[in-house]
Amino acid sequence: MNILVLDCAVSKISIALSYDDDKFICHTYDIGMKQSEILVPAIDDVLSQAGISPSDLNCSALTVGPGSFTGLRLGISALKAIELAYGVPVYGISSLKTYYYAYKNLHLPVLTCIDANKGKFYAAVYDENGKEILSDGDYESSFIIEKLNFEKIFVTGPDAKKFCEILENSNKKIEILSLSLNSDLNSAISLVEITKQMILDGVPPLQDYDGPVYLRASEAELKLGK
């Protein structure tokens, strides 16, 4: 199965291709706000390295949010263009679930998070059995900390380090576990594995009307008073 995946939830984007069942290519671009300049050429580059064309893809998948407004729009636009041109279905996956997935078998509570700015985080919390304790949301850090009624917690996601620092400086008595390693490869592999499971479970791909998952209004919407 040939699956193209994108993680455009934050400014550092990852593009990966799982192909011929056992081969894998992944590239990450930490280029700030220049995603629009690199995304399409980077997709072409990954496909070219594998020696396949977009028509050879069985499906594609991406993080649909929460995350960067610009990055999410770019990612969905790129994959839906491939779908329109070649009939390749697109699967949408929660960004926070994607960052959690690689650690689901730790048998520890897991907090997955993205810095949402303005003192808030996009976050979700799972217990040691994988049950969702706090669903994807746009939360004040203090609210998240109140919900962490565990002896220890594993923190992951693009902004795990920042949240760990906040948690360490709080009055919460909890053992904090995290990794300083680059998790881009983990998120790319997770997108592929989640997509395969969605297909097995009969979960439908994104429909024409589906778009990014936004948990807050954009700056433009706020200025318009919406």
Protein topology:
Elements: E1 3-7, E2 12-19, E3 23-30, H1 35-50, E4 59-65, H2 69-86, E5 90-94, H3 95-101, E6 110-117, E7 120-126, E8 132-140, H4 141-147, E9 152-156, H5 160-168, E10 175-178, H6 184-200, H7 219-223
Parallel strand pairs: 1-4, 4-5, 6-9, 9-10
Antiparallel strand pairs: 1-2, 2-3, 6-7, 7-8
Protein described:
- The protein has 226 residues and is α/β, with parallel strands linked by helices.
- Helix content is 35%, strand content 29%.
- It is built from seven helices and ten strands.
- The longest helix has 18 residues, at 69-86.
- The model has no long low-confidence stretch (mean pLDDT 92).
Distance between the termini: 43 Å
Largest sheet: 5 strands, mixed
Structural class: alpha/beta
Helix-strand sequence: EEEHEHEHEEEHEHEHH
β-strand percent reads 25-35%
How many beta-strand segments? 10
Please tally the helical runs, counting DSSP H or I stretches of 4 or more residues: 7
Oligomerization state:
single chain
Radius of gyration: 18 Å
Q: Give start-end ranges of low-pLDDT stretches.
A: none
Kindly report the average pLDDT value: 92
Order of strands in the sheet with most strands: 3-2-1-4-5
Overall form: globular
- Fraction of residues in helix: 25-40%
Q: Keyphrases for this structure?
A:
10 strands; 29% strand; globular; 226 residues; 5-stranded mixed β-sheet; 7 helices; alpha/beta; single chain
Question: Could you provide a short overview of the structure?
Answer:
With 226 residues, the protein is α/β, with parallel strands linked by helices.
